[in-house]
Amino acid sequence: MSVALLEARGLRKHFPLRGGVLQRTRAWVRAVDEVAFQVRAGETVGIVGESGCGKSTLARLLLRLVEPDAGHVWFDGEDVLRALPSRMKRLRRDMQLVFQDPHASLNPRLTIEDAVAFSLLVHGVRRAEAREKARMLLGRVGLDPRLYGRRYPHELSGGQRQRVNIARALVLDPKLLLLDEPVSSLDKSVQAQVLNLLQELKAERALTYVFISHDLNVIEYVSDRVLVMYLGRVVESGTADALAESPKHPYTQALYASAPSMDPDRRMERPPIAGDPPNPINPPSGCRFRTRCAFAMPKCAEAAPAPVAVAAGHDVACYLYDEVRT
Amino acid sequence: MFNDYSPEACGMTAPPGGTRISLLRVRDLSVEFATRDGVVRAVTEVSFDLSPGQVLALLGESGSGKSVTLRSILGLNPPVRTRVSGEILLKGEDINRLAERARQDLRGGVVSMVFQEPMTALDPVYTIGGQIEETLIEHRGLERAAVHRRARELLDLVQMPSPERCLASYPHEISGGMRQRAMIAIALACEPELLLADEPTTALDVTVQAQILWLLRDLQRRLGLAVIFVTHDLGVAAEIADDAAVMYGGRIVEQAPIRELFRAPAHPYTEGLMHATVRRRQKGKALVPIPGAPPNLAALPPGCAFAPRCPHVKPVCIEALPPLHVVASDHVSRCHLVPERLASPLLVLNKGGSL
Questions:
Q1: Residue B120: inside a domain, yes or no?
Q2: Rounded CA gap, A276 and A52, in Å?
Q3: Which of A300, B1, B99, B193 is deepest in the core (most CB within 10 A)?
Q4: Could you give the CA distance from residue A92 to residue A252 in angstroms, rounded to a whole number?
């Protein structure tokens, strides 16, 4: 087993909500709370959860696009949160982010060739060399640079734009890609093209992926290990197979049961859980899932359950599995 | 055994069962938009029937024409630079020939619509109660007290949590799932016979989507509603529909009962979509994407619009528009290769007793 390429411990981010004439803090959005995980070199770790669970904030904390309030992040043995700005620039070459919305994340005034070459220029590569490398990468992601290189983002389809984003993230030869809902806005037929491309690139370039999605099927398909997040906390983590075969946390179970079966003969009998995910502003005390949980006990309101190992590498933060601990 | 119907002769499939009366009859619906890039043929010669109580999924990817088809049924397409042709008979009345006033009476009373994004479809400056009551006053002319009672009943019908508080809430004060329940309540206010649902669960989280799908199915059964459910998601169609019509490039390319469609898809596009969709327990198995991209609706080819992406393409596919071939009873596919591929042993086996 290789050592962790990326490790996070006790990561926390609470955003203040200000209001009134004095702009005093009125409430806190508890976006990410006490999140800890490891990503080993070469693996794909999937992060799955519904809106407001903190998965996108988490990606931004790992890159320090948003500064965490507390916690540690190590990348390749280096303390990311202590890195000086010059060092941070170097670290970000190795950790690249691919955003969800390919419409909003490309500069409309740059041709796609320039968009891909841009980060090389920022990092001091000569223009001719940068352009050459950009053209090579565009070719690799399936966009012939002779046909597409001089086009602008609005001339491309959503799938093509997402390919540009992937080329742009790869142009600095990173070790790790943080993929934030990379296929969510794409049609299913195009989604499969991009997923296959990501799998090929990962093997070719020995990449490590952190793959964020709300789509359980996609997460199960691409990931070696999966973290399930709910309102800022990791409620369960384990191998993709272990989670699919025997999800333990009541929320993970509900998430799997809610996904359509793709079989008209096996329709859902009843909705697995009621209600919407609560607002991350002032979330429930204790276990944040307790307000929607069928098994909630009095102690669930008192303190958040700590993760318990139910099997090797399979952790669950739920009091139902407390006896395993003792 | 395999009858070839020309699109003109067949129109589209006979209604399932053949003898059921149709609530909605769409014949040769075409919708064109004049744009700077030329004439966009959003919908071309779409025909289908819907019986009372039937749930039809209109399946397709972005730009396939599914939402424009749905909007045409309400006459909601923009009035300028739009050409609509064909017939839309709702309980026998052609809505394209009705005066605006008469159309208004059909909207709400006979047919109503649930939109994808409840946050934009609801009015942010009126309470939920106010918006339900407005619908009732506009269409039913009820008394104030009766209106309030009915609004409360409707929220109970859609199983709204804390309904009294919801009546007094503004759209931004309630959750996404509750907003979608409120929109369904408004749609049901005047007891329509046909509900048009345009991707009503796409913007929702998966646990909430499960609740709304279940609610719609429950309401459909209890109220005997006919529903046209527009979705891009095969899984959602599998949960809710009796029948599905698959759209591509503005045309219906395949129509079948939902079980039949999943068991034996007969159009290469439908097959491709099934293979490209990530399912549970698919880890380690390669996805088979559909190569290329959807067609440009401003420059549709003379033949089959799917031909440039089709793994089975033949010269005839590029030259001529395929007719609708009957695959089985109630199952049609707009593909030149249906006779040939159906005759292959594998497909005959898949068909089982239906041949």
A1: yes
A2: 11
A3: A300
A4: 32
- In which domain, by residue range, is B147 found? 116-191
Dihedral pair phi/psi, residue B205, rounded to 5°: -65, 155
* Dist. CA B11–CA B253, nearest whole Å: 13
B129 touches chain A (CB under 8 A): no
Alpha carbon distance A275, B161 (integer Å)? 8
In terms of DSSP H, where are the helices of A95-187? Answer: 112-122, 127-140, 145-148, 158-170
Question: What are the C-alpha distances in Å from A101 to residues A141, A164, A185?
Answer: 18, 12, 7
Structure confidence by residue, pLDDT tens digits, B192-229: 999 999 999 988 899 999 999 999 999 999 999 999 99
In a domain, B135, yes or no: yes
Token representation of residue A248: 């333990």
DSSP state of A302: T
B352 in A contact zone (CB under 8 Å): no
Task: Answer whether B197's CB lies under 8 Å from B233's CB.
Answer: no
CA separation for the pair A219, A46 (Å, rounded) = 6
Which residues of chain B neighbour A263 with C-beta distances below 8 Å? 238, 262
Question: By the 8 A CB rule, do B42 and B296 touch?
Answer: no
Give the residue from chain B lying closest to A265, CA to CA: B259
What CA–CA distances, in Å, run from A326 to A296, A316, A323, B193? 20, 15, 5, 59
Q: How many domains does chain B have?
A: 1
* A115 near B CB under 8 A: no
Q: What residue type is A276 in one-letter code?
A: D
Angle at B238 between CA B236 and CA B239, to 5 degrees: 65
**Best CA proximity match to A161, nearest among A169, A171, A151, A153:** A153
Distance, CA of A125 to CA of A165 (rounded, Å): 19
- Nearest residue, CB atoms, A192 vs list B209, B276, B293: B276
Does a structural domain hold residue B179? yes
Secondary structure (3-state) at B330: coil
For the entire predicted model, the pTM comes to 0.89
Tell me the pLDDT tens digit for each residue of A176-193.
Answer: 999 999 998 888 888 999
Amino acid at A165: N
Check: CB of residue A120 under 8 Å from CB of residue A93.
Answer: no
Report the alpha-carbon distance of residue A168 to residue A186 in Å, rounded.
18
Residue B172 to residue B62: CA distance in whole angstroms? 28
Q: Which of B17, B10, B12 is nearest to B52 (CA)?
A: B17
Question: Is residue B315 situated within a structural domain?
Answer: no
- Interface pTM, i.e. ipTM: 0.89
Tokens of residue B42, six digits? 């959003």
Give the model's confidence band at A52: pLDDT under 50 very low, under 70 low, under 90 confident, else very high.
Answer: confident
Residue-wise pLDDT for A134-187, tens only, equals 999 999 999 999 999 999 999 998 889 999 999 999 999 999 999 999 998 888
